[in-house]
Structure formats: structure tokens, C-alpha cells
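Q: What structure does this chain adopt?
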Amino acid sequence: MIHPQLEGKIMTDFERTIKVLEGPWSTKAFPNGEETTKGVISRKITTLYEKDGYLCEEVVTREYRGDDYMDTSVNKRVLKLND
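A:
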């Protein structure tokens, strides 16, 4: 079921640039504008987006190893959207 406020909307209706200055996203992962790593083994950001008529998913992972880290990203098409 589609939420009534989303009825008839398309993904580009929600397009905007947001500064990460407040809310759980910034306070949990980037307090004071810095990445916290104490006790963190890895961090993932999963983004769903529309591209060329498909719902796509991008997963970016950062794995921490001592004083270093390794980043990986995976992009995939999830399903074809209705036209």
C-alpha cells in the first residue's frame, strides 16, 4: 500500500541536496562532523535509487582494520519499474 502523501509522486519529486548536520544519521555515524571508529568493525550505507527505469541498489562498505580501512561498493539492478 502506498502512503497517501506519496500517491502520484515520482522519485524525482524528492530530489534535493541535504547537509548532514543533524539527526540520527549524523549523530550516530559522524558526531562533530567526524567519523567515529571506536569499537566499529564495519559500516554499510545502502542506497536504493531509480536509474534507466530500474530500481537499483548500491551498498558501500567500510571495514576497519587496525589503523586502516578498506572501502568496497556494489551496485545492482533490483527490478524493472513500471512505465
